[in-house]
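Thread: "does anyone have the structure for this chain?"

Original post by V.I.:
We have the sequence but no experimental structure in hand. Need at least a predicted one for the grant figures.
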Amino acid sequence: MKNLFISPNSTIKEALKKFNEIGEKVLIVVDKNNHLLGTITDGDIRRYILNTGTIEGNIENIYNKNPKFIYSDDSKEKAKQIMLENKVEILPVIDNQKRVVDYIVWIDLFEDKFEYYEPKGKIDISVVIMAGGKGTRLDSFTKVLPKPLLPVKDKTIVEHIIDSFKKFGVL
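Reply from O.Q.:
Generated one for you, tokens below.
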């Protein structure tokens, strides 16, 4: 659980490294006694960098100081309601002293709601794959290959897209 925790004195670079390590989009900001101070998202940092033009500094003035949370004795239904109403992906769980004792991740509450579609046959519709654009975000790669032909594991991006359509009975 502590891998989601970050200190308000942490640098922006440390936060970015932590996002990269844990693969989540939210970190829980705590003091040295694990009291909840706030949350910070990768979007918070992105907006800060775009507004200031720098990656220097710490997260103290970036993180959300009024995060959504639940108490340890609250129900799962309350957690679901808060997550749905506020569109939060991670919800800290605190005790009566505001110490973070756990957290709830969106997928833990809602994964049973997702059903994977099994096609019952072919669907007779046309498909258009939009594959235009300059590919500037992947500039170092797209100078060599167009984005649809970039490899991801053992297939190109466009092959992954085609395979997704096939799973749904299209193509």
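V.I.: this helps a lot. The beta strands are 5-6, 26-30, 36-41, 70-71, 90-94, 100-105, 151-152, 155-156.
O.Q.: and The longest strand covers residues 36-41.
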